[in-house]
Amino acid sequence: MYQVTSDYAQNNFDEILDRASHDPEGVAIVQANKSFVLINQEELEALIETIELLKNPTLLTDIQQARQEYSRGEVLTADQIFG
């Protein structure tokens, strides 16, 4: 992961934003021995979604089952679902 000081980040903010928008790991900004990570919103949303899936094993099983059904052509039409 690319790492910079808070002073560097402050003075080169456009560069840091550009790097964070293209690097899935984001950019670590270090200040007073603490590290903060700047990532783009899509990466954050993907991480949150992954965490939610990992917290709910039933949901993950349901998704896997639905994918298997879909691959076998077992699908419902909108009329079948909504009447």
UniProtKB/TrEMBL annotation:
Coiled coil: none annotated. Signal peptide: none annotated. Pfam families: PhdYeFM_antitox. Belongs to the phD/YefM antitoxin family. Antitoxin component of a type II toxin-antitoxin (TA) system. This is Antitoxin. It comes from Stenomitos frigidus ULC18. The lineage of its organism: Bacteria, Bacillati, Cyanobacteriota, Cyanophyceae, Leptolyngbyales.
